[in-house]
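Sat 14:20. Reprocessing the chain from the morning session after the first attempt stalled halfway. Input below, unchanged.
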Amino acid sequence: MRIALSLVLLCLWGTAFTQDPSFSQFYANRIYLNPAFTGIESGIALTSSARAQWLSVDRGFRTYGATLEMQLPVAQLGVGLHVLRNEEGIAALNTHQIGTALSYTIPGKHNNVHFGFEGRMIQRQIDWSKLVFSDQLDPIYGQVYESSIAPVMDRVTFGDVDFG
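Finished this time. Tokens:
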């Protein structure tokens, strides 16, 4: 009973935000998936990705990303830079992210263990003028009024930390 209650409380704890971008080829966005993948292969890797989702919907979801990473074999380190842009819907809900990642590899006899850390800045913005609220609508003439809703904020910037 205590375990079930603990699991329920664990699921209820936290703050919910908008969904993360989804990638068709998630392996092309390794740092975004898990920062421990940074520099997992030798050499320098530059990857980019783009995804357009729900093409029949006006201004569906569009995601663009690029990653630059490299392995430093002398120090068993991997370093990387990750940039992402996500566009969601007609209201131009845009998310911009830039982050740096660092990974450390502990070599073993048969397997390796990788640890990773990523710090990133995220900026989200929305264009409120592209939205129609119920107080702007007239039952006969359609959209005729200015909205009385005055948004408090149209842009927010915050940091995020990931471990893997």
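The beta strands are 44-53, 61-72, 77-88, 93-107, 112-125, 137-138, 142-143, 155-163.
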